[in-house]
Here is the input.
Amino acid sequence: MGLNFIEIIRSVILGIVEGITEWLPISSTGHMILVNAFMNNYDTFTSSDLYLYVIQLGAILAVVTLYFKKLNPFSSSKTNQEKSDTWQMWFKVIIACLPAAIIGLLLDNIMNKFENPWVVSAMLIIYGIAFIIIESRNKTAVINDMKSMTYKTALYIGMFQVLSIIPGTSRSGATILGAIILGCSRGVAAEFSFFLAIPVMFGVSLLKIVKYGLSMPFNDIFVLIIGMVVAYVVSMMAIEFLVSYVRKHDFKAFGWYRIILGALVIAYFLIMF
Here is the structure.
């Protein structure tokens, strides 16, 4: 059977959506579910649970590329102290991953029941309101670099990440909100969210591949690779945009975006169905 051109086009579109939304606090999985719904893309590989999660590996590789030196504890250009700081940062990331890893495994078989436009829209609106309220009350940050973040704070941020199990919440949104509440600067909150995504998404993707994808046909593998490459390229730009944005702005604009999008989607489905 030849390659499905329509599936390739869908994969390119979803790769663009994934690359933009994975790092912004607006829910990548939620956006891909909505885009699939608008494209009437059901019961195809690009609408499958496997595709929607494994495509995120492309976005993860963008973080590894952009922050390779900072993430690498073996870098010959680092002093012993810098290497030690890098290892401590990784330990904080691993500790923060534990809550989502444990609860995610326990709930893996039931979470697909929440993958629908109604749940996504509700979560977009709820967390959009949360962003606006929390940013309105945000005080001067007390954690302005990764070294001053304690292991206890890292664990608490990881607990916020558990909220993102529900589609439409946004993994980056939940962790950034949690980090800000716990006293992190916006820059530290965004960067820790980037690093936290690496083991989480590798783990989730591996779980999905083992569960569904060990016997994937070549056509599906090709379509998935297309989506991952697009997500990688777009993610590079999205990450640099967000890092630049948070130096001068707060996250309220993302909150309003979430609220408006959620309301529009609810209105659309009420009218159309």
Summary: Residues 5-272 form one domain. The longest helix spans residues 218-246.
